[in-house]
Amino acid sequence: MQWLQWNRPIARTDARSVAASVVAVSVTALLLTGCATTVSAPVPSQRISAEEFRYVLPPLFGYPLTVPLQTEGELKAAASGLADSSNWAATEEAVAALLLRDPGLHPATLLLAQVEFLGADYASAVALLGPVVDELPDYVAAQLLLGRAAEKLGQLPRAYAAYRASAPRINLASARAAQLKERALEIVYNRLADSLGRGRLEDAETNLARLKEWAPDEPTTLRAERGVAVAVGDLERELAVVGSLSELDPGERSLRERLAELELEVGEPSTGLRILQELSAEYPDDLDLADRLSEAKFVWRLVMLPKEAKDLVKSEELSRGEFASVLYWLFPEVRYSRASAGLIVNDIFEQTGREQIVRVVNLGLMSVDLAMHRFYPERPVTRVEALTSFLSLMARSRPAPACLGAHDPELGASVDATCEAAARCGLLTEAAECLPGGPLSGAAAAQLSRRTLERLGVE
Q1: How many CA atoms lie within 13 A of 244 on its CB side?
Q2: Which of 73, 104, 221, 320 has the fewest CB atoms within 10 Å around its CB?
Q3: Is the pLDDT at 125 greater than 70, yes or no?
Q4: Hey, is 361 helix, strand or coil?
Q5: Positive/negative CA dihedral, 217, 220, 224, 226
Q6: CA dihedral defined by 347, 350, 353, 359, rounded to 10 degrees?
Q7: CA dihedral 198, 201, 204, 210 (to 10 degrees)
Q8: Region 143-166 average pLDDT
C-alpha cells in the first residue's frame, strides 16, 4: 500500500482529484515494477477477520451508474482476491490500470479503500471514500465500508450517517445504525451546544440540520432547535418547537408556562390565556402565576382593541394626546361614562384623537391650561402626569381604594405625594422608581393601566 503513503493529501480533494492522484501514483508504481531487475520476496499472507469482511461488498453493489461489461469483469476479478492479503498488490495494480482508462471510476476507488480497510488503515479508507459518497450518496457498498471505517476511528456521527444511507438495502447497516443512533445524536447535539456557546450560529444551524434529517421528532432535536431559536431571537420558531415539546411531555410545567408566554406574544393570545387559566387552577397558591394570568387577561384586552389603540401601546414615547387615547381605550369607565359639561380646548381640533381627548379632559383625568384653553396634545406626557391620571381613576371609584388615604389627585398634590401614593397603590414597586419628569412609553402606559385595572377590580 506504498502508493497511498505517497499521496496522503488526497483526503482534501474532490472525487475527481482523488481519482487523478490515484492514477498518477499507481501508474508510477507499475512502471517501477516493470523496470525492476530483482525478484521481490513473496508477501506474507494476512489473516482477514470474517467479522470485518462482512463490510466488504462487491464493488458494484448498489453502484448507481453503469459500467461497460469488460470493466465490470475486470472489477470482479480484482475484487476476487481481497480475502487473501497476498493478492492485494495485484488488486492495486489492476485498479491502477482501470483508473488509467477511466479516472472517475468510483468502484475502482472503492476497491482501493477496501484494501486499506482490510489492512486496518481506516483513516486512508475514509479519505478515499469521503469524496465518493459525497458525489454518490446512494452508493451502498461505499457507504457501508465508510460507516465501518469511520466507526473504527471513533467518528460516530459520520459512521451513523453512512450506515443510515445504506440501511434500506443492508441489514447489517441497519443494525449498526440502530446501535449508534443515540450516541451519534448526543455528539451532534453537544457540538451544537458548543457552537451556540461560542456564538457560532452558522455551525449550530449546520448541526441542527443534521439532527433534523436524522431524527426530526426526537426530543434531542427539538431541544436543539429551541436553543437555536432562542439564540437568534426567533420567537415564532421557538413557539413551534415548544409546542411540540409540550405535546411530548404535557405534564412539564415550565414548557406549558413558556408556551403560554409565546402564544400571548407572537401566537394566539386566547390559547396563551387558556393555558395560564389551567395552570392557575392547578397551582392556586402560586402568586407569580396569578400575576401572569392577570397580565394575560390584559393582553387579551389589548388584542381586542382597534389597530390605532394597539399601535399606541407599541409607541416608544407617548404624547399627551396619545396618552389620553390610551386611557380612553383601556378603561371602560372612560369610554362609556358620562362626562360633565365640556371645557373649551382650542388646540385639539386638528388631532385625530380629539374625541378621546375631550372625554378624558371632561372627566378631569388630565389637566388643561384654563387661562389659554390649551391641552398641548403634542407635548410628551410625563410619568407624573400619567400617575396622576391613574390615581384620579382610582379616586373616582366607589369605594375608593384605601391605599389612597387622604390623597386627592384633583387637588394638585405635590410630585412626592403623587409618587408615594402610586407606590402604596401598587402602580410602582417603590416611590424611588417614580422618575416623575421622565417620558412614558406605550408599553409602560399599558403596564400602569393593567395595575390600575387590577386595583379597580376590572378584568
Answers
A1: 16
A2: 73
A3: yes
A4: helix
A5: positive
A6: 40
A7: -160
A8: 98
Between CA 55 and CA 57 the distance in angstroms is 6
Q: What SS3 state is found at 46?
A: coil
What are 454's three cell numbers?
387590577
Count of CA atoms in the C-beta half-sphere (13 A) of 35: 6
Residue type, 305: L
Question: Which tens digits make up the pLDDT trace of 21-78?
Answer: 543 444 444 434 443 333 344 444 566 788 899 999 999 999 999 999 999 999 999 9
Whether the Cβ atoms of residue 453 and residue 331 lie closer than 8 Å to each other = yes
Eight-state DSSP code of residue 400: P
What's the whole-model pTM score?
Answer: 0.68
Burial class (CB in 10 A: 0-12, 13-18, 19+), 338: exposed
| Entry field: residues in the chain | 459
Nearest partner of 92 among 26, 46, 139, judged by Cα: 26
Quote the strand ranges of 200-303, DSSP E: none
Q: Which residues contact 446 (CB under 8 A, 6 or more apart)?
A: 298, 302, 313, 326, 330
Calpha distance 431→91 (Å, rounded): 88
C-beta separation of 118 from 86 below 8 A = no
**Set of cell numbers at residue 295:** 397580565
Round to whole Å and give the CA distance between 268 and 258.
13
Query: 270-277 contacts: CB < 8 A, separation 24 or more?
Result: 270/300, 272/296, 272/299, 273/297, 273/299, 273/300
**Is the Cβ–Cβ distance between 266 and 236 less than 8 Å?**
yes
Nearest to 327 by CA among 219, 184, 449: 449
Report yes or no: 221 and 244 within 8 Å, Cβ to Cβ: no
Q: Would you state the pLDDT for residue 23?
A: 38
Q: What is the Cα–Cα distance from 152 to 438, expressed in whole angstroms?
A: 67
User: How far is the C-alpha of 265 from the C-alpha of 250, rounded, in Å?
Assistant: 21
Picking from 172, 163, 130, the residue whose alpha carbon sits closest to that of residue 13 is 130
**Residue in 296, 276, 337 with CA at minimum distance from that of residue 454:** 296
